[in-house]
Amino acid sequence: MASVASPVIFKEFCPLYYLLNAIPTKVQKGFRSIVVYLTALDTNGDYIAVGSSIGMLYLYCRHLNQMKKYNFEGKCESITFVKLLSCFDDLVAVGTASGRVAVFQLVSSLPGRNKQLRRFDVAGIHKSSITALAWSPNGMKLFSGDDKGKIVYSALDLDQGICDSSLVLEEPSSIVQLDYNQKVLLVSTLQRTLLFYTEEKSVKQVGTQPRK
């Protein structure tokens, strides 16, 4: 007997006021009042990460119902991309409009996990706005792309507190998406999509016609 398909239930989801109310709409800089715009977003089962135009990362913990704030030292600039990862430790990578990239290793209350907030900076290879970030599943590799077509590979050693970065690929147009799995980096630009094999350092284009 054929099984009867269960009916589709439509749900209406309301705005996350508990999250939005924890983020200021304006901040005071000297005598000026600056409007705060939300510029980047990523989510997973544990966190909601929101980047802002004032260089502040707002990280909402879904289990504890707590909001925490992280920022870059120095110049206040817009965050353009955020990428969360839950592996042995919780990590969040952040990219800015000037090409700065930082990784925050979050504090965890679980036994054996990280007990002190740590930050890793990707050396200043990017000189323009970060448009894409991609993690390896174990958190040891981070790939970052910018709007000038540069892709940087960063190797992280969380135990030693080391982040080594190098330029691995340069495209003639802006990077719009990155995804990594099994030693293959999927790259999409404004002109084409390609597979970059990280071990062989070789490139294979997906399709034959350039994007218009």
Automatic annotation (TrEMBL):
Instruction: Read off the InterPro entries from this record.
Output: WD40/YVTN_repeat-like_dom_sf, WD40_repeat_dom_sf, WD40_rpt
One Gene Ontology term, aspect cellular component: cytoplasm
Q: What is one GO biological process annotated to this record?
A: protein exit from endoplasmic reticulum
**Which superkingdom does the taxonomy of this entry point to?**
Eukaryota
> What Pfam families does the database record attribute to this sequence?
WD40 (PF00400)
Name of the protein: TCPR2 protein
Tell me what organism the protein belongs to: Phaetusa simplex (large-billed tern)
Which gene is annotated as encoding this protein in its UniProt record? Tecpr2
